[in-house]
Amino acid sequence: MSSETLATILFIIVVGITVAITFWASRQNKSAADYYAGGRSFSGFQNGLAISGDYMSAASFLGISGLIALAGYDGFLYSIGFLVAWLVALLLVAELLRNSGRFTMADQLAFRMKQRPVRTAAATSTVVVSIFYLLAQMVGAGALVTLLLGVEGDFAKRLTIVLVGALMVFYVTVGGMRGTTWVQIVKAVLLIGGTILITVLVLAKFDFNLSTLLGAAADNSGKGEAFLQPGLKYGATTTSQIDFLSLGLALVLGTAGLPHILIRFYTVPTAKDARTSVNWAIGIIGAFYLMSLVLGFGAAALLDTGPGSKVAATTGNLASPLLAQEVGGGDGTTGGAILLAFISAVAFATILAVVAGLTLTSASSVAHDLYATVWKRGQATEKDEVKVARIAAFVIGGIAIALAIPAQKLNIAFLVALAFAVAASANLPSLIYNLFWRQFNTRGAVWAIYGGLITCVGLVFFSPVVSGPETGTALFADHDWSWFPLSNPGIISIPAGFLFGWLGTVTSKEPETAERYTELEVRALTGAGMERAVHH
Amino acid sequence: MSTEATGAYRAHDQASRHDPVYDELHDSADFIELRRRFRVFAFPATLAFLSWYLLYVVMSNWADGFMSKQVVGHINVALVFGLLQFASTFVLAWLYSRYMNRNVDQLARDIELRFNNESNGGVGR
What we know:
The complex is a heterodimer.
Chain A: H1 3-26, H2 32-37, H3 44-55, H4 58-71, H5 76-100, H6 105-110, H7 115-149, H8 154-205, H9 210-221, H10 238-254, H11 259-262, H12 271-302, H13 310-313, H14 319-327, H15 334-375, H16 382-404, H17 412-436, H18 442-461, H19 490-506, H20 511-526
Helix pairs in contact in A: 1-8, 1-15, 3-8, 3-12, 4-7, 4-12, 4-17, 5-10, 5-12, 5-17, 5-20, 7-8, 7-15, 7-16, 7-17, 7-18, 8-12, 8-15, 8-16, 9-12, 10-17, 10-19, 12-14, 14-15, 15-16, 17-18, 17-19, 18-19
Chain B: H1 21-27, H2 29-62, H3 64-67, E1 70-72, E2 75-76, H4 77-103, H5 105-118
Antiparallel strand pairs in B: 1-2
């Protein structure tokens, strides 16, 4: 059997399993709390797996190993930043948010602010972050299918992107949070299993000696020891060093501001379960990133990563699947074909689960924040709200599909890093201020969100990533309107978000918000009066 | 019973105040102690791990010589430093959970219980 046939069969199995889960879950959805928060009835361990499934996206599986394969040690920063970031979520956000919110990120702000402006702002940034993140996953899906079916044409890629989009809309409209969570749990188990398998096979080639593996990677990369040292990608100039610092900041501060991660904390019954789920997530994600180090250096050691190679042509996005083929026996062998097909199917499952989570998050925010509160002023029924969430899922799916097609040239991990930068600039400042600063008020929240969002997206727009010949992969390589030298805007836009939030707060008076902080603080720390689990 | 429907936010421009019991709880000695215990761990720990992480990023950028030193075979300081970031993350997550279990959770439960008793079993919110 050819690798293509096998891969197609495995893809269909993956899709079949997830569709079955979704139908099963849809039968249990009765109330809005079921649809948005899975009835708040998942255990800490289940939610920990689901968080891992939500977080270990195509960026982690395909992007990071690809960056390490091409740029060596500098790719490692991504894994470290992505992991350490969980401590911000664990120590400052997860438990307090579980106690004080209901369905969306905005709930937590709306607890003490004027509802309509803060919900509009929070919904806007939720949708923007989720769309950046969605783009990355769709680019990954396109690259995978090109590899597997051996089709070079744009048509196949576009068809895949449209199919992935259709599937994600299906999961979200039919399964809601409960279905999405189970899809993520299954995916997390598959991904960890697949990664362990490849890691062991790679290490076996080097007698389980990490040093030998690193040495081989350095030799094969053609760059020698420099490949194992920091600075290959970012060390060339002062600008690129600052870019690296900027990236590091966005990675560590972004996680706790990602809306699709934040709403996962609402799916457990208590704050203590939220803590347990983050602990499981840290363990699972940490182990995964340690293995992705082996995958990245393994790909550098065993594959051709030079100019013109398949790995380089896809900015590293295909390093992991190609590595699986290599350790399975190589191109043209049965073992190679099986492993390539298996790992690609795992990557495909990964992408499906993550896009479902992202679409659900933005659709929830549109329905719960914009439709029910801003437009209907709280008069919408739960049934209408859920219906609007389903319609929103269609629209967001469409937007993501339309944007993903021109973004094909970018590295997935890089695209996700942009989503992290937006999350850290627009969402984190208002979340942290709201939880810990009594005087923080509506204007502060609105300015923090829009200020951080506009600064961040604006700087990306004027960066060499979007226009100009500098990077070679810019979206508009023929025109050049870039003046901002960094690819990563975080170092400017994150402080800007905090600054705008502070400025908005001190320039307006709103004694009511400080008064209501009393209640928020008690509720956030003790859980008194929080939203309970649903018992059917 | 589902409490979701009763907890729905009203259509006011601003969320309504739910219960005066919160003011009373906020000023209670138990709550002040709870908040102190939480912050005394969470704030310094956050400062510590962020500094430790930024030190790593800065060293990767501007301390090439040190980071490139080989420790064993092809394993250099940079790799060890990176792996230590993993280790410190695991350890801090564990320490935080142990601290909260021992020093904070019971206090939070007591206050929540008091809230439930004093606010008509939670209906008055």
